[in-house]
Amino acid sequence: MQHIIDRFISYVTIDTESDAKSTTTPSTKKQLNLAKLLVQELKTIGMTEVTIDSNGYVMATLQSNVTHEVPVIGFISHFDTTPDFTGKDVKPQIIPNYNGGDILLNATQNIILSPNYFKDLLLYKGQTLITTDGTTLLGADDKAGLTEIITAMEFLIKNPEIKHGKIRVGFTPDEEIGRGADKFDVEKFGAQWAYTMDGSQIGELEYENFNAAGAKIVFKGKSVHPGYAKGKMINSMLIANDFINELPKNETPQDTKGYEGFFHVHHLNGSIEETVLELIIRDFDAKKFKKRKELIHQITKKINKKFVKQFGEDIIITEVKDQYYNMKEMVEPVKYIVDLAEKAMKEINIKPLIKPIRGGTDGSRLSYMGLPCPNIFAGGHNFHGKYEYIPVESMQKAIDLIVKIAELTATTNFSKIKKVKKVKK
Questions:
Q1: DSSP states along 260-277
Q2: Is 49 marked active-site?
Q3: Is 362 a catalytic residue?
Q4: What is the C-alpha separation between 259 and 289, in angstroms, rounded?
């Protein structure tokens, strides 16, 4: 396991935070520091066709070691970390033989990772955990995926008796800001299907995710001296508050679970004369997703009508943009790729946890670009914050799973494979 630990730590200690405000790809140049290291490692372990393009996308090939025809499959992960919490100067801590109690992450700041709050910790009693020092995130999302894919490829190269077809690996920038698939060259990648190693708890296998849209709503107002404001002032912040109050009360992230959708107000910034509200819209069901977007426009129309005489024009300007769609539509016609991963899990004694992703994934967009791409666990917990941790044993299981999927792909009859075409929505 030390080999896995060393590789993982070498990745997470490189700052690769992405930046949503940037217009470049990758969004931050520092992501290339890790991308170039990955290129070197792929070459060192014996991968072929190792490339990095001008946008930082890394691809490589493990050539087939069988003579019969086998579908080309892929494994994908991203190397950026979220800008929501700092990933600079990560100082991982190793907790061997975890005893099931509190873990002191930072004595100076009294930051404690406790199973009293994070009950999943108790699943890993007796295992080796890697945690933060309480001041940064860890970066297991998705440097665990990088570790697992490269280590699995290295294992296959060193153990040629394990039969496999051609395997492509791909590492992307900017997934955390929703751009990981923007410039991913599906044709160049050349796989029939792939798996993103980007889930959380061991056993996760996901091929459903939210349909997603983002809304930016600008509220206009009129500023007048408050002593003489009767019938004249229009406070845009209060109009924004009225808008929020029109949204369904119990359809927020904190009130929903499973297949339930939501509206999530995540930014609100304003003054009397202008307020900008940003929210996201999520639903698994396409029809409900459409109705949610329509509701935003209906509320806009209702409030505009109320103020049109006083303001003289629309007081609210609303822009709703789709972000990604439920990959289920693209994966279900070739669901055998999910069944294959499920079978592989069972063969190495992992209990499959097949559930929807209450979020997005590069796999969703890639599926609509013609590369069906379910998501598999990478092993980490509490992503995007100081309480993030990962059991090393979970990373080992992910490595074993990649190997087993490769092996099963080479020994399964895929004579009735259906091709998935690029879909524009």
A1: --EEEEEEEEE-SSEEEE
A2: no
A3: no
A4: 12
